[in-house]
Amino acid sequence: MDVDHKSRSLLIDRWFRSEYRWLRTRVVKDVGCPHSAEDIAAETFAQLLTLRDLLSVRAPRALLGTIARRLMYEGWRRRDLEKAYRESLANQEEGYHPSPEEQALVIEALLTVDRLLDGLSSKAKTAFLLHQLDGLTYAEIAAELAVSPSRVQQYMVQAFKHIYQATTHP
């Protein structure tokens, strides 16, 4: 084991011993469930293992809180997407029942698209989704969003650029 790896391991161990209880308590206030808070706090520390420059962190609570908040938001986003998907399934034809595996694949695809579009304005996201999923023209999207068709075109350029950058520079 090299010195840097050993130092990182000791640092994470020290933070875990000193900050885990604080983090779990903080997260349970936001999520309302002690079991979910345990999962998020544990995953927060697991994600520390992937960070490169841990030895220079001066405010571990700020870092831990940021990682935990991101995990909470991802959980809430996933829950909301799953709910919307299940609602759309409920409105489908009676004979259509995707398998649990198909449902899981669709939810993962939705989460991937959501992550790719993260950072765009809500109108740019909506324009992209209306065009790509619903097949609406720029004029139809413009009417829906109460903007000009040229503005829709700008939203689409932003979306494609954003997705390209997200997929080529992860």
From TrEMBL:
A single BP term in Gene Ontology: DNA-templated transcription initiation
One GO molecular-function entry: DNA binding
SUPFAM superfamilies linked? Sigma2 domain of RNA polymerase sigma factors (SSF88946), Sigma3 and sigma4 domains of RNA polymerase sigma factors (SSF88659)
| Start and end residues of each RNA polymerase sigma factor 70 region 4 type domain | 112-163
Q: Does the keyword Transcription regulation apply?
A: yes
Annotated RNA polymerase sigma-70 region domain ranges read 16-80
Q: Which residues are in coiled coils?
A: none
Give the transmembrane ranges: none
What keywords are annotated for this sequence in UniProt? Sigma factor, Transcription, Transcription regulation
Keyword Cell wall biogenesis/degradation assigned: no
Q: Which domain of life is it from?
A: Bacteria
Q: Which family does it belong to?
A: Belongs to the sigma-70 factor family. ECF subfamily.
Q: What is this protein called?
A: Putative RNA polymerase sigma factor FecI
Q: Which organism is it from?
A: Pseudomonas reidholzensis
